Amino acid sequence: MTGRNRLVAIVGLVVLTATVAACGGSQPAASKTPGAPVTLKIEDFSPEQTAFHAQVAAEYHRLNPNITIDWQSIAQAQYLQTLPLAFQSQHAPDLFYWTAGGTNTMSQLMANGWIRPVSPDGKVPDSWTKRWPAGLFVNGINTSGGKVYGFPWQDTKYWGPGYMYLNKAVFQQAGLDPNKPPATWSELQQTCATIKAKTKAYCLAAPLKDTDWQRTWFAMAAGGLTDLFFDYRTGQYDLAESQNLQTFNYLQGLYRAGYMAPGVNDKAFSRQQFAAGQAGIYMDGPWMISVWDQLGFHSDGYAVAAHPVPDGGATGALSMRDNQNAYWVSSQTKHAAETWAFIQWMTEPTGFFVRNFLKNSFATLAFAENKTFLTDPAWKAVFKIAESKGFRVATPEPVLKCPALAQSKAEVDANRLHPNWEYEVMVSALVNNTNLAPLAQQVAAGRQTVLSSELQKESAGGLKVSLDCYTFSTWSYTQSYNSNQYPKS
Amino acid sequence: MTEGISSPLAAGAAGRRWSARARDLLGGDQRRFWIPVFLAPFLVLYGGFTLWPLLATGLYSIFDWDGIEPLNRFVGLGNYARAFSDPIFWLAFRNTLLFAFLNCVIKLPLTFLAAVLLTQRWLWFKRFFRTVLFLPLILPVAAAGLVFTFLLNPSNGALDSFLVGSGLLKEPIDLLGHDNTALLTIVLVSVWQIFGQYLIYWMAALQSVPEDLYEAAAIDGAGPWRQMVAITLPLIRPVALIITLLALVNSLHVFGAVVTLTGGGPGQATYVVSYYIYNEAFRQAPFAYGYASAVALLFGVLAFLFVFGQGLLARSAERLRREYGV
Fold first, then answer.
1. A80 touches chain B (CB under 8 A)
2. Which domains does chain A have, with CATH numbers?
C-alpha cells in the first residue's frame, strides 16, 4: 500500500470511528420486557428539595427494584430555558414540572406537543381522582377530550402570598406584643413608628429587586382589590384603578418615612434581614416556614398573621385559583406505564411521598390531609388565617365561561409585553418618590390594547372569544365565584 | 500487487511524482490547493458559529417564534416596528451608549496611567501591583456583581458603614437604588472588574516603543512629559485606536453586571439592550425568539453605525490635524 493510500485509509477509519461514536450516544430503545430496568427521569425547579427527592428515589427503588428514579432540580430561571431545549433535542424527561401558563398551561403544553395523558390509555380510575376535592378536574384546565392530562398539586386555599411574619424579638424590644399584630393600615403605620423609635431594626423588610416586590404588594393590594394585575369584574388590567393607587400611595408613605429597609434588595437578602432581627415584619407565602427553618430561624422566633387591611375594612381578597396543575407526563416518554405507576404512588394521600413532603413543609398538597401532617405552630396559624372568611376567594376562571379560550393566545401575548412592567413602574415610583398614576395607566392601557386586539383577531378567525369572556360583572371581590355561576354549556 | 515504501528514496520519489501530478492539475501553482485546505477549518467554524447564527437571527426576526413551535407565524417587519415604537427599547439603547461612553472615558485613561506607572524603572514591587490590579479580572462578572451588591447595600454594607461611621455621611446612601447613581455605579464596578485586561493591553503597547528613542530624547534634554507627548503617544496611536475600539465594542455588551447589581432597576433605570432582550424574550414562557432576534439585529446595526460614525469622525479629525500641521 502506498504512503498516500495508507494515509487515506487512516483518515477514513478515523472518520468512520467518530461517526459511529457520535451515533452511539442515543438512548437505547425502550425495553418492553416486564421487569426490565427502567430509568424514570423527572425534572423540576425545586433545588431545595434535592435531598427529599433522593429519599423518594431510594424508597421507590426499594419497592420497585427494576425502576430507578433520576430526579433533577435546577434553579427556576435556568429550568425555564433548558426544558424547551430538552424537548427540541428529543431528550425530554418522563415527568416534568410546568405552571408557566397559569390556567392555560395544559392548552399551551398540548399546543407545543409536550404532553400526553397521565395514564397510558388516558383513562384514570375514580379511586384516583377521588383523592382530590370534587370539581378540581376541569375540562380545558387539566382534562381534554375525556382524558386526564394533569392533576392539581398545591392546595391553593393555603398556598399563596398574603401572610405577615413578625419577628418576636424585634416586637418585644419595641414593647409590642407579636401576638397582637397590626390588623389595619393605621395600626401597621403605628407599629412601624414604634419599631423605628425604640429599636435599631427596620420595620418592614420589603424586597424591591426584579419581581420580588410582589411579596409585599400582593399582600397589601389584596386588602383593597385583588392580588392580580387583572380585574375580572371589569375585564381590565387594573394597576391604575383607584384602590391599587391608594394601596401604593400608602406603601410609598411607609417608604418615605423610612419604615422599609433601604436598598433595592432581593428576596434572599430581605429574608435574611428578617431572620437576623434587622427587620420586624416580612410578607410572603407559607413556603417561608421551610425557608425560615433552613435559615435556622424556627417558629418560636416568629409569629404569623394575616396582612393588614384598609382602616374601613377589606374591600378585596387574595385570589385562589385552581390552576396549580404542576407535573405533566412528557409526550416523549418511553415509559408511560411506569410513569403512571409512579404518579399513583406519589399521590397516595398518606403515602411515603406525602408524609415526607409535608414533614419538610415544602408546600401544601391538594391530594393530602395537610393538617394531619403539618403540625408546626406556624402552619396551624396559616391554616387558621387562610380559613378565615374573605381571606382568599376563588377568582372567576375565563376558560370556564368561554371554553374556546383554551386555544386563545391573547392573554399570553398581553402578559408577555414587558413581563415585569408593573413591578418596574412601582419600584421606580417608590424609590424616586413620584406619582405612580401616569405610569400605571400606561401599563394597563398597553396590556389592554394587546388583549383586545388579539381577541378581536382570534374572533375574526372563527374562535368564540371576546373581552366579555374576561368580564364577570356580578363578581364581588370579597366572595368566591362559584362553579354554578358559570354559564351552562 | 501493491507497492511498498521500502526506503526514504522511494518515498521521496513517490512524493515528487504526486506533487508533479498536483502541479499539472492546478496549473503549476500549488498555493491554489493549499490555501483553501488551510482555510477550510477556519471557514467551517466561522460559517457554523458566526455566519449561520447571523443568518438564522435574520430569519427568526421576521417570525413570531417561541423557539418550540414550527416557524410559521410570519410577521415581516412587525418585530422591528414593535422595537422602534417601544420607548423602553430606546431607553435601553440610550443607557447602553451612555454606559459604553462612561466606561471607556473612565477606564482607558486610568488603565493607561497605571500602565505608564508600571513600566517605570523606578517603581518598586511592580509584580505585586500588577497582580493586585489584574486580580479582579479573574472574578466572573456575576460574582463581582454579587460582591458589590453586599458591599454597597445601604442597610449594612461595608461602604455605607464606613462612610456613616467615619462621619462623612449622616445617613447611608443607596447608590444602586436611585436613577441618578445606579448606572454610574455599575460603570465603576465594571471598570474595577475589567481593569486588568486593559492594563495588559496598554503595557504591551508601551513596551513596543523602542527604548533607544527615549535614550536619544533624554540626551537631547527631553523630560518625561515631553517624551510622553513626542514619542510615546504618537507611536502607540495605532494600537490605542484598536484598544479604544475594543473597549467600546466590549462595553456595548454589558449584561452580567446589570443582572446581578440592579436587575435593570430601580424600575428601568439601568436597562441596557442585552438585558432588554433577555427580559422581553426569555423571562416569560412562551419565549419570544423572533422579537429578541429583531432587537439584537437592530441594535447590532445601530451600534455598527455608531462605531463607524466615530471612526469617520476620528479620521476626519486626524486629517485636519495633519493639514494644520498640529
1. yes
2. 38-155+322-347 (3.40.190.10), 157-320+377-489 (3.40.190.10)
